[in-house]
Amino acid sequence: MSDDTFDLYLIQAPETAFPADDNTRGYNRDLLKAYKGSLPVQNIDDFIAKVMFEALRRHQRIKKLVIGSHGAGIPGGYGHFYIGGNTIDVNDKRIELLSLIKPYLADDADVYILACKTGFDEPLLQRVSRALGGVRVHGYTEFITTTNYLLFVSVDDGTDDGGRHIVCMPNKCVDYVPPPTKPPVFMSPRLRR
After folding, report:
1. Predicted model pTM
2. Which residues neighbour 178 within 8 Å (Cβ) at sequence distance 6 or greater?
3. Most buried in the list 7, 79, 135, 139, measured by CB within 10 Å?
């Protein structure tokens, strides 16, 4: 991350999750704990205000924006996610409000929607990308789960269990394929000379 950008984690406020049970709201609390410095959001207006405030306060643009929330999706294309208490689906006019934060995103920004199975709705991810100026929008086709180990929380996007990581831009979506990593090179002491 360069000096002129930063990462921002905005999580659906636990009290806005429905139903009002410990499992549903516990997921949101776990996301807030997993991502240090993350901020809870009440609704889309609060979301936009926090993006603007954090970018202006730091005098930097956002390189990675994580939207952590509940969501749903089904194979074949329908999905939705929440920004605070607001349900966002492909037909929601509030998506256009996201264009207000476009100036605060880096040109090569990535937006991750950590909401269960939202990756099934590629038109939704494309519409979010368009509203945000064409940045990459990431979604997942499996359940997003957290595990609270008391001292720390882990987040699982479901890709290890066969789920897909989808990346969308305004006119296309692709399956994300992580870049290959080079295996570590171990040299015997004799070869180091």
Report:
1. 0.90
2. none
3. 139
